Structure formats: structure tokens, C-alpha cells
């Protein structure tokens, strides 16, 4: 099988198993219509009328509590506005801040690795190590490696024309990052690594039973007083286990 065929197969699999959060919530909303609490697959979707920050009209926010395999429960949130067609999706941890922070790292060696599920909470930092490209804490995401890297590349490309006019040197450096990122997505830059570091302990990279030594890693760490303060925990440094 050629690299192009493998890429197509991987993309199809990621589309099947990692559909957009909005579609996932909408799907649950449809399938649970008329369900009872006794139904095994019952998943209540709560709908809340919310102000659209784009047009000022009222839209709808849908909330769904769901479980991530090998991880824990998360709340999936999907907002849509029928007036201006704006949509956005994010996730939040269903529980509290964990006793320790977590650091997950994955070494990608094949196109199949792009389908690994990723939970990035709003307190997590993501870094693609070989590119020295860091994504700071922000909107929570439920995605996979391919979706995460594609979103970053698309965001960088969005303002390139303006950068070329305002700051050509910066635009040139970003162009190099985009070229390398697209090469990674095409399967031409293996192996490479990325990590998700979350002081709240609410992020995740999915493991695989076939992972060997050095492929997938998880470690926990004691938060610094500064990290506790950022999480609203105050100066509550924990003693090492």
C-alpha cells in the first residue's frame, strides 16, 4: 500500500472515530429524544440559550457529559447561532483539579499515530518538540494528533499575507514552521514527538496496547506554588509521594 493510500485510510478512520464535537453532541441529542433513565445508552444533553458574541443574537449551547476510554468523564460543549451561523466547540473536565499535574508524550512513527485521541484542557500546554512549536493554554479540545496539528497549521497560514507586509522576517520563520508541519502531516518527517503538559491533570493522550518502550509516556508531577496559584488553589504545595 502506498503512502498516499495509507494517508487516505488514516484520514477516513479519524473522520469516523473523531467526528466534530458539534456533530457528536447533536447526535446524542437526536438519539436521546424520548429515552428514559433506564436506557443503557441514555446521555442527557442540556440545551441553554446563550448570547452570540459575534452578532449579539441568542444562540444555543449544548452540554453533554461523556466518558473518554482509559481516561475519565468530560463535558462537551457546542455552541451554534442560527442567525450568523457561528459555531464553536470545546471541552471541560467534569471533575476537579487532580492531586498532581500530568505530562503525556507521544513519539509518532507512522500515519496510524495521527489517529491517537487527545484531550487538551484549557490549562494544558502542547508542544511539537522537533519544531519547537508550543501551543499555550487556551480553549479545551477533544481531537486527535492530526486534527491538533492541522488546526495549528491552518491558524498560522491564516495571517501570513499580512505578516509578509508588516514583518517579513517573522513571516519567513513562520513559513518554515508551516512547511515542516505540512511535511509531518504528509508522513514525510517521522519520527517526531509532541507532549501535553497540564498542571491540572485533566489532559490526555491515548495509549495503544502495542506501544513499546519510548513510544508513549505518562508521568505525574507535583505542582509549583505558582501553578497552584494559577489554578486558584493558593500556595498548597504537595509533598512528594
From TrEMBL:
The chain positions of domain Zinc finger ZPR1-type read 50-207
As recorded in UniProt, coiled-coil segments are none
Alphabetically ordered keywords of this record: Metal-binding, Zinc, Zinc-finger
Record's Gene Ontology CC terms?
nucleus
The organism sits in which domain of life? Eukaryota
- Give a GO molecular function annotation for the protein: zinc ion binding
Q: Which Pfam families match?
A: jr-ZPR1 (PF22794), Zn_ribbon_ZPR1 (PF03367)
Question: Hey, which family's this protein in?
Answer: Belongs to the ZPR1 family.
What name has this protein been given in UniProt? Zinc finger ZPR1-type domain-containing protein
Q: Which organism is it from?
A: Photinus pyralis (Common eastern firefly)
